[in-house]
Design brief:
It contains five helices and no strands. The chain is mostly helical. The protein has a single domain, classed as Orthogonal Bundle (Cytochrome Bc1 Complex, Chain D, domain 2), CATH 1.10.760. Helix 1 crosses helix 5. The model has no long low-confidence stretch (mean pLDDT 88). Bound molecules: heme C (HEC). Heme C (HEC) is lined by residues 17-18, 20-22, 36-38, 43, 48-51, 56-57, 60, 67, 76, 86-89, 91, 93, 102.
Amino acid sequence: MRRQGDARLGKDLFVKACSHCHSLQEEVHPSNPRLRGPHLSGLVGRRAGAIRGFPYSQDMRHSHLVWEARTLLQFLRNPNDVLAGTKAPYVHMKKSPDREDIVAFLQVATNPARR
Ligand code: HEC
């Protein structure tokens, strides 16, 4: 049986492993030099590479990927499995339960209506 991700654990993982590059707030300008990744507000259900003004890699901008639990789990395991030329750094989410916890957290935290 597949384990359900735990959003509380996912939050701690996000703060440690993701928040120095990604904001969850849309208000933070995408070119904020402190944040090297695009903001993740509204992430789940949106197309990859869709934040205006963020200098995505060509592959991410032109991909037809939609972010949902399945694609996020693959991306966190190895970004290059889903997008060959992404410039997202290899993030060491080696443990499958950690990936599931982060995705459970993202499903809540990136949805402004559910915050
Ligand atoms: C060192 C900075 C950095 C860290 C740390 C980082 N990312 Fe990223 N992330 C990026 C960059 C840069 C991109 C854009 C990649 C591209 O354009 O190919 C990105 C893209 C993404 C995207 C796609 C966003 C979109 O708008 O389509 C998701 C989802 C994502 N990262 C999730 C995560 C998660 C979850 C973590 C923590 C486990 C994480 N990232 C850690 C830099 C980072």
